[in-house]
């Protein structure tokens, strides 16, 4: 019995140690990950990035944020919006003034708004369904708006501004639309466009 326990413990220990990576190993993979991205080898970068994710805590905080943004971008470009949002959210939570992540989140959440909007247009004759979809539209729009506003405040574009105004109009939020410029001005005071990797 003791022999079986020792063998089982040895196997378990071997499995754990093969899964755990040292900080140097994680940084080596991070270097390879960045090289693959620079070489525009998205498939390899995505594979390497997914290997890094369980051990990303071994990266320094700034490096980890860069990694999270980069892997989020790879997931987004691969059509994996849910995973992209997960990593962009980590960046936005740690660096709320980094408007590049804010813009990415805003446009990813906007996809839900657009999907609900299309269903809402198709349900014009069904009063109950129209009310339900209108509520869902408002919830989705309110989720996208803070991110879009930060992006617009820091890096204004006609497209983003038009989307923001359209969301307010479609929600019937005249006060939000009327105070938009003042809020954008406040949001524009702290803008970060590059993450420090050191």
Number of domains: 2
Q: Based on Cα principal axes, name the global outline.
A: globular
Low-confidence stretches: 6-18
Average pLDDT level? 90
Distance between the termini: 52 Å
Give the helix proportion (percent range). over 70%
| Total beta strand runs | 0
Strand content: under 5%
Order of helices and strands: HHHHHHHHHH
Rg, Cα atoms, Å: 22 Å
> Main sheet, how many strands, which sense, barrel?
none
Short description:
With 198 residues, this protein is mostly helical. The protein has ten helices and no strands.
Description:
InterPro entries: TPR-like_helical_dom_sf (IPR011990), TPR_rpt (IPR019734). Helix 3 packs across helix 4 (61-77) and helix 4 (61-77) runs antiparallel to helix 5. It contains ten helices and no strands. Helices cover 78% and strands 0% of the residues. The protein is globular, with a radius of gyration of 22 Å. It has two domains: 25-80, no CATH class; 95-198. The protein has 198 residues and is an all-alpha fold.
List the helices and strands and how they pair.
Elements (H helix, E strand, L loop, with lengths): L1 H18 L3 H16 L3 H11 L8 H17 L3 H14 L4 H24 L4 H28 L3 H14 L2 H5 L1 H8 L11
Helix pairs in contact: 2-3, 3-4, 4-5, 5-6, 6-7, 7-8, 7-10
List the main descriptive attributes of the protein structure presented here.
single chain; 198 residues; mainly alpha; TPR repeat; TPR_rpt
């Amino acid at each position: 019995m003791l022999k079986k326990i020792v063998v089982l413990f040895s196997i378990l220990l071997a499995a754990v140690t093969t899964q755990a990576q040292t900080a140097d190993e994680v940084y080596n993979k991070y270097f390879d990950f960045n090289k693959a991205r620079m070489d525009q080898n998205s498939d390899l970068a995505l594979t390497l990035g997914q290997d890094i994710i369980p051990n990303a805590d071994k990266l320094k905080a700034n490096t980890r944020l860069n990694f999270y943004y980069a892997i989020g971008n790879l997931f987004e470009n691969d059509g994996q919006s849910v995973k992209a949002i997960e990593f962009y959210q980590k960046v936005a939570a740690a660096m709320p003034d980094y408007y590049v992540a804010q813009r990415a989140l805003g446009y990813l959440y906007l996809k839900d708004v657009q999907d609900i909007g299309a269903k809402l247009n198709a349900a014009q004759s069904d009063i109950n369904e129209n009310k339900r979809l209108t509520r869902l539209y408002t919830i989705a729009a309110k989720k996208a708006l803070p991110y879009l506003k930060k992006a617009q405040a820091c890096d204004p574009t006609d497209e983003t501004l038009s989307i923001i105004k359209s969301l307010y109009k479609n929600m019937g939020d005249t006060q939000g639309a009327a105070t938009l410029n003042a809020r954008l001005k406040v949001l524009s005071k702290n803008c970060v466009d590059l993450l420090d990797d050191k």
